[in-house]
User: What shape does this take?
Amino acid sequence: MATPILYSGTKNASSWAMRAWLALREARIEFIEEVVDIRRPQRFINLARIGAFSPPAMVPVLVDGNTVIADSLAIMEFANDLAGGALLPHQAADRARARSLMAWQHAGLSNICQRISFESAFYPFKRPLMNVERAECRRLFDCLERNLELSGGPYLFGQLSLADLMLVPTVVRLTRHDLELAPWQRSKSWTVALLERPAVVEWLSQADALPHIWLDDYLPPADARLPELGQVTLHEPPTISHREPPAAEPGRQAAGSLLRPPFAGRMPSPMADSSRIRP
Ligand SMILES: N[C@@H](CCC(=O)N[C@@H](CS)C(=O)NCC(=O)O)C(=O)O
Assistant: This one.
């Protein structure tokens, strides 16, 4: 039988492809990897080629003989099936909990991933996480910590599962933005265990070697407050001020401009489409 082909994505841009790729690797399934360059401008023609055999015209896509699997979650489930179910918990209730976490991530993880692009994990400098992002991280890590407490670790359901793999790109985003994990010691060890897995190391080392993909919406609005984690509570009011920015002086940028110290003059112009979905 022919070896399946995974049409994957640019490694510092495609968190979706990373999940499918990791699941296939961890399930020890042999596959041919075809990296589809999703950077502009070649993005459009390359995705149109994918559209010739996969209606969503997106990556990842796994082609196994006549079977076209056009979604990262479906590829992950397929990998688990081929591995005899080794990548999901054995108990039905645990499997349902694992799939709940996977669905949460697949649906955007309460905006964490829309706000913090995968591309930004590879930038040479990082903006501080905003208050609202830290609050969402607290919600996520409180939940992960409870899972790890229940399972005893080292992974969310004891052994490595699709739920862990699904969250790897988020772990990369957040740890590389220096999220302080001290309040969640079990989760801290869990992130270390995930980031040390050979498949994760292999993907990230290739991603780190690629040219950065600058997105124009990385920086926060100029008037957003960026408080310390200690100031965050789950019930605090929204932190983004809605006051009107002062009018610009003649010949200068308005206060609402995204380019402001400390980044002013240091950001190359954006090269990629920042409007796409990014969990
Ligand atoms: N739900 C899909 C989403 C895949 C996706 O959005 N892939 C991006 C690359 S990371 C893409 O191909 N985007 C093409 C486009 O937006 O036109 C999955 O999980 O596989």
Notes: The pocket of glutathione is lined by residues 9, 14, 16, 38, 47, 58-60, 71-73, 276-277 (CB under 6 Å). The CA atoms of residues 3 and 31 lie 6 Å apart. Residues 227-275 have pLDDT under 50 and may be disordered. The longest helix spans residues 131-151.
